């Protein structure tokens, strides 16, 4: 069945039409004009919340625009849907599930019910088990099969069972136990496993098999390879598995069938989406790296942002504002991509993490009602840490043909204070945002004595939208706040776009086809069952593969 009806209800709303008219009326107004007209624009169009400072003044909008966007959010029921999410309503309608990642960071005494059961005690029970296990590994009390201390932890998982853990590990490295080694194997490409384990000793290595479903092709393949690698290095005794493998999953049956004792399993629940799970047991590698106390600080940061989002008026509500400004840039300015540019090397995996969070959540063409959306949804999310990106792709951001809204993220204090590195780093954030907003006219370039024929090459249009998120330093609490900021941004946009941000049916078709193709790659007969292109590719591979 194909989607036959296109839904135009969002674009027909009075609030949407008002925004369209408003955009028309200001489409020629530039950021230069807006800043010249209002000397306190920087202060007006910025907000503080959950210890983060958010300056969105260098976007092509006014306070009036924000008010109109808030009207749209209200008309689309953002406030009510937020309450439904926080209180365990089954808002993931295509999977008939509650959406309760916020329960993962609720304080012990809270009551949040799903099907009449308070989930909070279960969350804390798992957290306590994770803490006890982490303490045993970190203290050396838990030893491997041959009695040696566990020094290496390898997380095997993919998507939400990898991107959050690896991002958090990189981000919080300064808080980690440096006597331990952490590795993350995700790709079914054998090179990933080989390279990540080549210098590790099986006697000192613990594998965490992280998979919500415990059926994912990549993870199960890597898990079996890990078991072979481990047993080969431990004398082939199956009993060794109990000391070197733990599982994080919602699928106890699958874990048991793999051969991991469910006593060594840390569970979570179907109401935690994979890409919303880094603060569940999926964060076990994070806890092993930074310790239970720091992990709980990270949860506290998440919770602080949850409360901020749930209770703060939208005029000062950071996730709502980030979502609304993004929606303005996407649906009214027509921007197709957003660059997330953290000026902190330790956030090197943050953009990759956000790619799944945003694009798997909101990269959808069907409305909740099953019609085709009559408006654009998620833009492409991409990015790299600054200042490296400046020497690679910023050329296009400054002088390319379409604006690329940017989120700059920076910190006042570095984890490693060395000389004047931090001042040089952060000065670039301010400079880039300023250059993108105001550019440099041909007249300004000319006044510097530049030759006429070079003027078009050296002028900068400016008028390019950016946000800046700034806070004190990158620590566990801050990371929790930052991730929750983007989680609720995604929720804000998904609610207005009228889509289900919590399923991911779009990943299924390719998986099913790959399963069909796997045996064809080793069959004797020429493959003829696909289209001529796919047949050709498969048969060429068959002819050249190592057998
Ligand atoms: O392929 C998409 C996906 O289902 C993601 O949503 C998920 O995070 C990832 O695969 C891994 O799934 P699992 O944790 O079940 O192995």
* Helix/strand class: alpha/beta
How many helices? The count is: 23
Largest sheet: 6 strands, mixed
Q: Termini, distance in Å?
A: 41 Å
Bound molecules: 6-O-phosphono-beta-D-fructofuranose
Q: Over all CA atoms, what is the radius of gyration?
A: 25 Å
Judging from the principal axes of the Cα atoms, what is the shape? globular
Q: How much beta, percentage-wise?
A: 5-15%
The total count of strands amounts to: 15
Averaged pLDDT: 97
Strand order of the largest sheet: 2-3-15-14-11-13
What share of residues is helical?
Answer: 40-55%
Instruction: Give unreliable regions as ranges.
Output: none
Quaternary structure type = single chain
Topology:
Elements: E1 6-7, H1 9-12, H2 14-26, H3 31-37, H4 41-44, E2 46-49, E3 52-55, H5 63-75, H6 78-86, E4 113-114, E5 117-118, H7 120-139, E6 152-156, H8 163-171, E7 181-185, H9 190-197, E8 205-210, H10 217-233, H11 241-244, E9 245-249, H12 252-258, E10 265-267, H13 284-290, H14 292-311, H15 318-332, E11 337-342, H16 350-362, E12 372-373, E13 380-382, H17 394-399, E14 406-411, H18 421-438, H19 442-446, H20 455-458, E15 466-471, H21 476-497, H22 508-520, H23 532-544
Parallel strand pairs: 1-12, 6-7, 6-8, 8-9, 9-10, 11-13, 11-14, 14-15
Antiparallel strand pairs: 2-3, 3-15, 4-5
Helix pairs in contact: 2-5, 5-15, 7-13, 8-13, 8-16, 13-14, 14-21, 15-21, 16-21
The structure holds 6-O-phosphono-beta-D-fructofuranose.
């Amino acid at each position: 069945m194909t989607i036959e009806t296109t839904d135009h209800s969002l674009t027909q709303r009075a609030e949407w039409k008002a925004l369209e008219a408003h955009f028309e009326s200001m489409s020629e107004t530039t950021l230069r004009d807006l800043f010249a007209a209002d000397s306190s624009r920087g202060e007006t169009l910025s907000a503080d919340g959950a210890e983060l400072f958010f300056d969105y003044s260098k976007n092509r909008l006014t306070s009036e625009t924000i008010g109109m966007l808030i009207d749209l959010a209200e008309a689309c029921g953002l406030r009510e849907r937020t309450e439904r999410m926080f209180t365990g309503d089954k808002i993931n309608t295509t999977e008939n599930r509650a959406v309760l990642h916020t329960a993962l960071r609720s304080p012990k005494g809270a009551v949040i019910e799903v099907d009449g059961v308070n989930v909070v005690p279960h969350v804390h029970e798992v957290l306590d088990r994770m803490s006890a296990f982490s303490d045993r590994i970190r203290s050396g009390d838990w030893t491997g099969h041959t009695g040696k201390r566990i020094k290496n932890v390898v997380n095997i998982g993919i998507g939400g069972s990898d991107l959050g853990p690896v991002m958090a590990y990189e981000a919080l490295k300064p808080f980690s136990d440096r006597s331990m080694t952490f590795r993350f194997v995700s790709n079914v490409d054998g090179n990933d496993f080989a390279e990540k384990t080549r210098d590790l000793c099986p006697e000192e290595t613990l594998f965490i098999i992280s998979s919500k479903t415990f059926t994912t092709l990549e993870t199960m393949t890597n898990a079996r390879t890990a078991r072979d690698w481990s047993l080969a290095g431990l004398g082939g005794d199956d009993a060794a598995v109990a000391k070197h493998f733990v599982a994080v999953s919602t699928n106890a049956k699958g874990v048991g069938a793999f051969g991991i004792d469910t006593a060594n399993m840390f569970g979570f629940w179907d109401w935690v989406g994979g890409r919303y799970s880094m603060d569940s047991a999926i964060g076990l590698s994070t806890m092993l790296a930074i310790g239970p106390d720091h992990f709980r600080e990270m949860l506290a940061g998440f919770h602080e942002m949850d409360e901020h989002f749930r209770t703060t008026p939208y005029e000062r509500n950071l996730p709502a504002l980030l979502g609304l400004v993004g929606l303005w840039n996407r649906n009214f300015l027509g921007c197709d991509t957003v660059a997330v540019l953290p000026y902190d090397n330790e956030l090197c995996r943050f953009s990759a993490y956000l790619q799944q969070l945003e694009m798997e959540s909101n990269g959808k063409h069907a409305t909740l009602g099953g019609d085709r959306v009559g408006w654009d949804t998620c833009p492409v999310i991409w990015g790299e840490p600054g200042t490296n990106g400046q020497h690679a792709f910023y050329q296009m951001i400054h002088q390319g043909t379409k604006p690329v809204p940017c989120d700059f993220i920076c910190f006042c204090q570095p984890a490693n204070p060395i000389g004047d590195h931090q001042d040089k780093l952060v000065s670039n954030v301010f400079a880039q945002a300023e250059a993108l907003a105001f550019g440099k006219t041909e007249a300004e370039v000319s006044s510097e004595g530049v030759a006429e024929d070079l003027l078009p090459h050296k002028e900068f249009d400016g008028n390019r939208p950016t946000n800046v998120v700034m806070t004190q330093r990158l620590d566990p609490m801050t990371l929790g706040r930052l991730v929750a900021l983007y989680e609720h941004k995604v929720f804000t946009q998904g609610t207005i776009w009228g889509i289900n941000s919590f399923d991911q049916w779009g990943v299924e078709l390719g998986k099913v086809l790959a399963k069909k193709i796997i045996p064809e790659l080793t069959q004797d007969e020429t493959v003829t069952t696909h289209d001529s292109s796919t047949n050709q590719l498969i048969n060429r591979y068959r002819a050249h593969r190592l057998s």
